[in-house]
């Protein structure tokens, strides 16, 4: 049993270590703007992720408890608003003791668990990453100073802002910025001064605009693989959004949409597989295929690790995920097309 637990801990430690290296590689190009900008970008990204998770991750139990809570809350309000005030208070008290209190606590704790998964846990993981990576020693080595900001108040008093404190400030600022921008966009959309297409175009112009756009763009060094990995991430998040959209609109009752949902799930797994494989061979260079002949290959790994070789070999079998995904997508679209043709007839 001890050996089994030790093995699990080794796998967890291995995953955390390489996840940290992966994030360090992805966000290292931002370091040209300074440590303050990198940490602010990470805080803003994690806020957007928590908002996306909060909207997309909703359990059936949470929905049921919310309906029960609102139902019994309305019943209580109707009871307390009747002409006989004393009788209304007694009925409200009975409703509280019989149903509402229990339903409220269940609803509250389910919401608390949901908040922990969608908000608190991602923020804690990001905070752990920042504290681990942007230590005073690493800040000094990468940026030439031990602190993100330093202020001198007089000759004997100095204020130093560490990466952890700056992340907390950026996190609060990002939530405020998100709330302000959301309110402004809602007002503009309500007044029909902007439509969703215009908002999307503005977003693309601001964040994706470039002075030079070439038909063919060459990448040097780490730039090519980072762009490639970001493409996988966008594909992955798109498929996750598609799965939740199909669920949310209850489209999975139709066989065609259900097959598309299965396809999206396989594409999610394929992107995770590809991200991990590219990370091992093109980013940290710990595993590579060496072709021995037409039918034989050798997996070369750092320190001749047999476990890493097995993991890398399995990851390179990504066609076992993407081919069925494409097939299910084709069949699903064909099913929907056939239904529309029958309706048109």
Can you give a write-up of this model?
It is built from eleven helices and four strands. By secondary structure, it is mainly alpha-helical. It has two domains: 32-205, no CATH class; 225-336. Helix 2 (35-56) packs antiparallel against helix 4 and helix 9 runs antiparallel to helix 11 (319-344). It is globular. Residues 213-219 have low confidence and may be disordered.
**Which bin fits the share of residues in helices?**
over 70%
Q: How many structural units, i.e. domains?
A: 2
- The dominant shape is globular
Quaternary form: single chain
Widest sheet: strand order?
1-2
Describe the biggest sheet? Answer: 2 strands, antiparallel
Mean pLDDT across all amino acids? 79
Number of strands: 4
Radius of gyration: 26 Å
Given as residue ranges, the uncertain stretches (5+ residues, pLDDT < 50) are 213-219
The portion of residues forming beta strands comes to 5-15%
Supply the number of helical segments.
11
CA distance, first residue to last residue:
65 Å
**Which secondary-structure class do the elements indicate?**
mainly alpha
Order of helices and strands: HHHHHEEHHHHEEHH
List the helices and strands and how they pair.
Blueprint: H1 2-27, H2 35-56, H3 60-80, H4 85-133, H5 136-143, E1 149-152, E2 158-161, H6 163-190, H7 196-208, H8 223-248, H9 255-283, E3 287-291, E4 297-301, H10 306-315, H11 319-344
Antiparallel strand pairs: 1-2, 3-4
What's the quick description here?
The chain is mainly α and 345 residues long. The chain has 11 helices and 4 strands, in the order αααααββααααββαα. Mean pLDDT is 79; it is low at 213-219.
